[in-house]
Amino acid sequence: MKPYTRAERISMKIQQAITELLIKKISDPRIEMATISQVKMTTDLRLASVYVTVFGDENRIADTLAGFKKSKGFIKKHIAPQLGLKYMPELRFFHDDSFDKAARMDALIESVVKDLPEDPESDSDNGELT
């Protein structure tokens, strides 16, 4: 049995192909600092949801997604031969905010840890039994 479904394997291929395309061929300044964080395929391989990580404000994110939307035909044309599929999936681009959420969680945890009082018994104990 294969460890991944066909949709998962195609998702990985699409992610790799778009990433290589971003590095080598796409010169649109709106999308040059974007990272493809994940691709999710439908089981019928007709739709690929491409999640893009962009650091910046809402305007930067909107510009990046607009750049990907405008470059969709170019991207599909260049990655289709690498996929070996009968039909090229429709690409839809979304902002992946999971890194932003993780950064906010880290900041919250850090603020809580800073506010905790130090335990004076733990400093003198050193974990040794007497």
Index terms:
alpha+beta, GMP Synthetase, Chain A, domain 3, 3-stranded mixed sheet, globular
Helix/sheet category: alpha+beta
Mean pLDDT: 85
At the first level of CATH, the class is Alpha Beta
Q: What number of domains? A: 1
Q: Report on the biggest sheet.
A: 3 strands, mixed
**Spatial separation of the terminal alpha carbons:** 57 Å
What does this structure look like?
This protein is an alpha+beta fold. It has a single domain, classed as K homology (KH) domain (GMP Synthetase, Chain A, domain 3, 2-Layer Sandwich). Helices cover 52% and strands 15% of the residues. The chain has five helices and three strands. It has helices spanning 6-24, 58-70, 72-83, 98-115, 120-125, and strands spanning 35-41, 47-53, 90-95. Strands 1-2-3 form a three-stranded mixed sheet. Helix 1 packs across helix 3. It is globular and about 65 Å long. The termini are far apart. The relative contact order is 0.14.
Task: Spell out the blueprint of helices and strands.
Blueprint: H1 6-24, E1 35-41, E2 47-53, H2 58-70, H3 72-83, E3 90-95, H4 98-115, H5 120-125
Parallel strand pairs: 2-3
Antiparallel strand pairs: 1-2
Helix pairs in contact: 1-3
